Amino acid sequence: MSNTRRKPSRPPCVFFSTHHIHTALLIPSSANKPKLMDGKKTQERSPWGGDGGNLVQDAVDYRGCPADKSSTGGWVAAALALGIELCERLSTMGIAVNLVTYLTGTMHLPSAAAANVVTDFMGTSFLLCLLGGFLADSFLGRYLTIAIFALVQAIGTGLLAVSTEVRQLRPPPCGGAGPCEQATGLQMGVLYVCLYLIALGTGGLKSSVSGFGTDQFDERDARERAAMGLFFNRFFFFISVGTLLAVTVLVYVQDHVGRSWAYGICAGAMLAAIGVFLSGTRRYRYKRSSGSPIVHILQVLVAAARKRNLKQPLAAAALYEDRPEHARIPHTAQFPCLDRAAVMAGDDDNEVGSDGRPAPNPWKLCSVSRVEEVKMVARLMPVWATTILFWTIYAQMITFSVEQATTMDRRMGGFEIPAASLTVFFVGAIMLTLAVYDRVFIPLCRSVMTGRQGFTNLEKIGIGLVLSIVGMAAAAITEKKRLSVAATATNRAGPAAAALPISVFQLTPQFLLVGAGEAFIYTGQLDFFITRSPKGMKTMSTGLFLTTLSLGFFLSSALVSLVKSCTRWLGDTINHSRLDYFYWLLAVLSVVNLAAYLLCAMWATPPPASSQAEQPQPVAASADDKC
C-alpha cells in the first residue's frame, strides 16, 4: 500500500448540477456568515481557506463559493458576454433594417402596413426587456436568463430562415398588369411567430447582458472599478460593430444571395456565441439576487394606499426606518402621499415571521429609505416620458427612409448599394459623434472650463432632441424634392420600375443628424437613469430606459395608423404619398416635446433632504430584507 498522501481538494460549497444551477448561482453562500460555536459567535472560514482578502464580497462562483478575483471575473469573463450582445445586434438589426423591403416587395404589403410591422416588432423587443429583467431579478438570475433567451432568439431566427425559403409561405411574385397578391393570413401568421420569438429572445437577454458584464468587476477594487467604466464604452462599441455588420454585410447577403442564407448565418452565429458564453461558466462571478424592484415598488404603493386615511405625522423622525445609518436615504418632502407607507400603525403592520415572532409586513409597512427609492423612480418619469418621441423619429430611419432609398438611384460606380445599407451613415454618425465628443470636446472642455467634464446627462438628452428636429426638417425637404422628381419621371416607381433620377445620397443629412442625436440621447438617457435611480434598482432602471425605445416604436405605429385613417398623406406606395407632410408633423410634435422636456429637466433635480435631526430612527433592524 502506498504511503503517498493525497492532496486535499477544495470542498464543494453547493452541489452543482443542472437541477441545482439556480441554487448555485443565486442563493447567498453561508461561507462568510457568523455561526455559534461553544456559545460564542465566530466567523466561518471560507471553503477556500486563507484570510479572504482576494474574495469578492457580494459575488459567488459557479459552485456557490465566494468568488476569487484571481480565478473569476475580469475582462476575459466580460468579453464572453460581449460576444452575445454582438450577435444579438447582428440578428435583430439585420432583420429590422431590411424587413420593410421584404414586406413590400415579397409579401406585397402596403407601405404604411409594412412600416407598422417593423415598428411593432422592434417595440415588442424592447418592451420585453422588462419581462427579462423581472425574471432575472426574481427567479433565474442573469446567467440563466441570457442563456435561455439567447437560445430562444436563435430558434426564432432559424425558423425565420426556413419561412423565407419555403415558397408556400409567401405569395407568388407580381406579374402582368393586375394587382399583386398580398400575403395570406397563414403566411403572415408564420412570419409573426418567427419575428416575435426573436423579439422575446432579444428582450430577455438584452436586459441582462450589460448587467452581467459589470458583475465581472468588483466596485470596491479601484482597478476593477476603472475597468468597469471602460466596459460600458466597449459594450456600446460592440453594439455599433454588430449594427454596422448588419447594415452592410448582412443586408448585402440578403439582397444578393438570399434572405434564408442571411438569417441562417445569424442563427448559426448566435448558437456559436451561446457555446462560447457557456464555456465561461467556471470563470464567471454571479451576484446574489436581491428580489424584484417591481415588487418593492408595489409594496410601497399598496402600503400607502392602505393607509391613505391615516393621519400623517408632522416630523419625519416619526416614520418607520429599519436601515443602519450608512445605508439610509434621506427623507424628502416631495410626493408626501407615498410617505404614508412608512406611517406606523402598531400591531396591524405585523405578521408572524419564520421564527414565530411578529415582524413588519412589507405590504403594510415600508421603511423611509424604501419609500425614497420609489420617489427617486417617480422623479425619472417626466424625463422618461419626454424622450419617447425621439425613438418615434428613429423608427422612420429604418422604415420610411429605407423605402425612400428603394426608389432612388443607388448606383456608385458599377455597384448598386442595397437600400437598407444607407443606414450605415446612421451608424457612422453615432460612432463619429462619440469619438469626437470623447477625444476632442471633453479634453477641450477640461482645459477651458475648470471642473467641467463635458455635457451633463440632461444636456445630452436636450441636444439629441434638437438634432432630431433638424433631422426631420431635412427629411421633409428631401422627400418633397424626391416627390417632384417622381411626378415628372417617365417611369413610375414600383416593384419592377426603374429608379428615379435622384441620388440616394440626398438622404444622407437625415441619417447623419438623427444618428448624431442618438449618440447624445442614448448615452445621456443611460447615464441619467443609472445615476438617478436607487442602487438596488439599476437593472429595472435600465429596463425603464429601454421602454422609451419600445414606446417610441409603438407610438410610430399609432401615428402612422392615425394619419393614414385621417388624411391621404400615406398611400399604398411611397410615390403616391405625401411623406413630407408626415415628417413635418413629427418635427412640429418634436418642438412641442422639446419645450415640455426643458420644463421637466428643470424639475428633475430632487428637493433638498430633511434635516438630520428629523431623520427617522431605526425601529426593527430585522426587517431590513423584508421591505
Structure explained in plain terms:
- This protein has 627 residues and is mainly α.
- It has helices spanning 21-26, 74-105, 111-127, 129-165, 185-214, 222-256, 259-279, 293-306, 368-386, 388-397, 400-406, 424-448, 457-488, 508-531, 538-566, 579-603; strands at 34-37, 40-43, 55-60, 66-68, 286-287, 350-352, 358-360, 408-409, 411-412, 415-416, 500-503.
- A hairpin with a 5-residue loop joins strand 3 and strand 4.
- The strands form 5 sheets. Strands 4-3-5 form a 3-stranded antiparallel beta sheet.
- Helix 4 crosses helix 15, helix 6 (222-256) packs antiparallel against helix 7 and helix 10 crosses helix 15.
- The relative contact order is 0.12.
Q: What does the secondary structure layout of this molecule look like, with pairings?
A:
Layout: H1 21-26, E1 34-37, E2 40-43, E3 55-60, E4 66-68, H2 74-105, H3 111-127, H4 129-165, H5 185-214, H6 222-256, H7 259-279, E5 286-287, H8 293-306, E6 350-352, E7 358-360, H9 368-386, H10 388-397, H11 400-406, E8 408-409, E9 411-412, E10 415-416, H12 424-448, H13 457-488, E11 500-503, H14 508-531, H15 538-566, H16 579-603
Helix pairs in contact: 2-3, 2-5, 2-6, 2-7, 2-11, 3-5, 3-15, 4-5, 4-7, 4-15, 6-7, 6-12, 9-16, 10-14, 10-15, 10-16, 12-14, 13-14, 13-16, 14-15
Summary tags:
single chain, 627 residues, mainly alpha, two-stranded antiparallel ribbon, 11 strands, 6% strand, disordered C terminus
Q: Helix coverage percent of residues?
A: 55-70%
DSSP strand count: 11
Query: In percent terms, what proportion of residues is strand?
Result: 5-15%
Which class best fits the helix and strand makeup? Answer: mainly alpha
Radius of gyration: 28 Å
Average residue pLDDT: 81
Assembly category: single chain
Low-pLDDT segments: 4-8, 14-52, 491-496, 609-627
**What is the topology, as strand order, of the major beta sheet?**
4-3-5
Order of helices and strands: HEEEEHHHHHHEHEEHHHEEEHHEHHH
The major β-sheet equals: 3 strands, antiparallel
Our count of helices gives: 16
